[in-house]
Amino acid sequence: xxxxxxxxxxxxxxxxxxxxxxxxxxxxxxxxxxxxxxxxxxxxxxxxxxxxxxxxxxxxxxxxxxxxxxxxxxxxxxxxxxxxxxxxxxxxxxxxxxxxxxxxxxxxxxxxxxxxxxxxxxxxxxxxxxxxxxxxxxxxxxxxxxxxxxxxxxxxxxxxxxxxxxxxxxxxxxxxxxxxxxxxxxxxxxxxxxxxxxxxxxxxxxxxxxxxxxxxxxxxxxxxxxxxxxxxxxxxxxxxxxxxxxxxxxxxxxxxxxxxxxxxxxxxxxxxx
Length: 273
Fold this sequence. Notes:
Helices cover about 30% and strands about 20% of the residues. The protein has about 270 residues and is α+β, with helices and mostly antiparallel strands. Helix 4 packs across helix 5 (about 175-185) and helix 6 crosses helix 7. It is elongated and about 70 Å long.
């Protein structure tokens, strides 16, 4: 089996946008930074900061010195294929704790054959099953792309009631974590920072269903918004609660359009490496 190398790409320099374009249009890559020891036929996994393992490709040329980057070597890539959703750094650390690279990602590295085999299997599993490969206990370490994918898998028009002494409805942990991650510490109602930090060190916000779950409201990211406690109480108890909820629903239309655009595709510059 060919050797596997981990390489990096950027966002502002156009790498991420180019990978998406290359995967969709079957483009071959200009010279990407790879280990000096890489050989044609070796495989690479491209890591993008903030996303994780983002794409795979195959090296098609021998590495040559990069004139624009001292002590770095570049090679051509082909067969760029995206990993959807990307495997986040948190998930990488959980799955491969022995992979020292993951604790401080460097530009290039060549993992051992045993770890490379595990990485290949994890990528194949992600491509086969999507976000279904994430268990509930792993969601706390997942990236926002993973959380959204799981949230959409868990989403359904109505929640199934379970009966104990009273009727209650289950809520999706994935949707909760995704909505809080989407807010990035700011109330999506009043746009101000969360009023305090929770014991876990994260900004405190509360998920709010704009149509109550008790009224058979949909448990879906497009109908759940992250609010500070004040806005959350306002949405339920204020004299303008109905009008405020209507405004929140309009906010959610912008946050979660029917077909959520990939921010990388909105970039107009596709920089060549």
